[in-house]
Write a structure and sequence with these properties.
With about 70 residues, the protein is α+β, with helices and mostly antiparallel strands. The protein is built from one helix and three strands; from the N terminus they run βββα.
């Protein structure tokens, strides 16, 4: 993870994830709330259940199909 740390716009070091999909490079900064009451596991469950309920399971790209 130490390779994936950058300085954000207010001068703080923040971890990030970087992924290239086709010709687009996505850079996602990670941040945490000091006042959050949910665990990461709870948040992920909530997001997954929401996506399942709303038909957002995702579609495979042609290169991922086998």
């Amino acid at each position: 993870m130490s390779d994936n740390i950058q300085t954000n716009t207010i001068g703080r070091l923040t971890p990030y994830l970087q992924q290239k999909i086709d010709k687009t490079r996505y850079l996602v900064e990670v941040h945490f709330s000091a006042t959050s009451t949910q665990s990461v596991e709870d948040k992920l469950k909530r997001v997954i259940l929401h996506d399942l309920e709303h038909g957002k399971q995702g579609k495979l790209r042609k290169r991922d199909e086998k």
